[in-house]
Write a structure and sequence with these properties.
about 475 residues, about 0% strand, 4 strands
Length: about 475
């Protein structure tokens, strides 16, 4: 908790609000939920999300949008705070915090002065669409936003409070994960210390919930498979609840339910109870998907002539991909060949910020972190192997299915027909399943005979600090 919280705070300060991948979409989604929690109108009659008037500048630093969210000039000129981490971004942050010269205060009040009651109730609208997913994905951030609004904090106070609550949630969930794991605690700890993970958990991203709950589901499954004497009703309820909350965020991670097959049937008390437990876990996931994602699934599977907006080109339809399996395999293979190195680097933290190549982790550090993680995964002298060869293969199959599902979803949603490989697949998408993959690498052929876990973890922390100080210096 101390390591993740301390490093997360440092990453949050150096990489400012709205600088993480898709963070502005997560920001407005948390804002919408915060308004609902406060009993206020969250969306206006035009479907735009209401925000405080003082927060409108976050999405329009150059002030090119009208009050109703429409452009007064070129819409592409609207600059979102933190999207590009230039000197001007940090200068604006400094001015907002200190009230220095150049800070554009609303005429109604000045920096440091108390806000009149009518100003506090003024609202604007956001032109950012919210993410259509389970609201539970934004509960920690929304609670932070709500507290900031109740306390009357400004825009930056709002953003940092949301980030702080998200980081606290991950630190607490990570602690429960390590507590429940029957073995391999330092391996999972090492995954959580990767720069990309620290960057995400110190942002407003809903990847925090996905990574945290995938890790906890993994810990539950391994605990029941290798340490617990029997599976209780409470354990089945925890598995079902975890999968139901996490699944609708990104449905491809639902394949992690396959880890339940590592649990021996005898621990359930027979095949009847095993089938009932499987029905409960998969039923909870299916019900959550039906409630939250039924419209999204219908949208992507029903359109025959798809158009990829970002490329302004035709895209693949679901029916076309289903009837062209060789095309799908070819695109997946091309993606791994041409983008495999970037996926590996991105998983560790090759490009931070909004995938900014300037705010990067040196490749020698990427290799150092990956090697250290591998060292943590190796068996130590006298340590018994829990995962058998067949179970190891099954874990790899689960990881491969998840990778294939990720690439298929990006091929359908994000890739134009003219592309030679799948667009939109990022290394950070591999983080949720990295803990169980790393745990499966322990074997009898390689044994680590020197350098204890504490020194390796301390080395990772030192590399994390170097990465963020280097980015700060840039």
């Amino acid at each position: 908790v101390v390591s993740v919280a301390a490093l997360g705070l440092i990453y949050a300060l150096v990489l400012p609000p709205l600088s993480a991948p898709d963070e502005v979409s997560h920001y407005i989604s948390a804002y919408e939920l915060s308004s609902r929690l406060m009993g206020r109108e969250a969306v206006n009659e035009n479907g735009l999300i209401r925000i405080r008037a003082e927060d409108a500048w976050l999405e329009d630093v150059n002030d090119v949008l009208a009050d109703d969210g429409t452009e007064t000039g070129n819409g592409n000129d609207a600059v979102i705070l933190g999207q590009e981490l230039t000197e001007g971004t940090y200068q604006r942050l400094h001015e907002e915090i200190t009230g220095a010269d150049g800070y554009k205060e609303p005429e109604t009040y000045q920096a440091g002065a108390a806000k009149p009651a009518d100003m506090a109730n003024d609202t604007a609208v956001s032109y950012q669409p919210s993410v259509r997913t389970t609201p539970l994905a934004y509960l920690p951030q929304a609670l932070g936003f709500t507290l900031a609004r109740v306390l009357g904090l400004g825009s930056l106070g709002l953003l940092y409070m949301g980030r702080l609550f998200n980081l606290a949630f991950f630190a607490a969930a990570g602690r429960q994960t390590l507590k429940r794991l029957p073995f391999g605690k330092t391996v999972v700890f090492g995954v959580y210390l990767l720069p990309m993970n620290l960057h995400l958990v110190s942002s407003l991203s809903y990847d925090v919930l996905i990574t945290a709950l995938c890790g906890y589901f993994t810990a539950l499954s391994l605990d029941l498979a290798y340490r617990a004497r029997r599976v209780r009703l409470k354990d089945v309820a925890l598995l079902a609840l975890t999968l139901a909350v996490m699944g609708p965020c990104k449905m491809v991670y639902g394949v992690i339910a396959g880890l339940c097959l590592l649990i021996p049937v005898r621990k359930f008390g027979g095949w009847g109870r095993w089938l009932a437990a499987a029905a409960a876990v998969l039923g909870a996931f299916a019900l959550a998907m039906l409630v939250v994602n039924s419209q999204t699934v219908a949208l992507y599977t029903g359109i025959q002539d798809r158009h990829v907006i970002w490329a302004d080109e035709p895209g693949y339809s679901f029916a076309q991909l289903i009837h062209s399996p060789l095309l799908v395999l070819k695109m997946c293979y091309s993606t791994l060949v041409w983008q495999g190195g970037e996926l590996f680097s991105g998983m560790i933290g090759g490009s931070l910020g909004n995938m900014d190549p300037v705010l990067n982790t040196p490749y020698i550090i990427v290799l150092g972190l990956a090697f250290t993680l591998l060292m943590l995964a190796l068996r130590k002298p006298g340590e018994s192997l829990k995962i058998s060869g067949g179970q190891r293969v099954w874990i790899w199959v689960i990881c491969l299915i998840c990778l294939g599902a990720l690439m298929f979803s990006m091929l359908l949603a994000w890739t134009p027909v003219s592309a030679s490989f799948i667009r939109g697949v990022q290394g950070r998408y591999l983080l949720p399943l990295l803990p169980i993959f790393a745990l499966s690498l322990k074997n009898d052929r390689l044994v680590r005979t020197d350098c204890d876990d504490r020194k390796l973890l301390f080395g990772m922390i030192c590399m994390d600090v170097y990465v963020i100080l280097r980015i700060f210096s840039v």
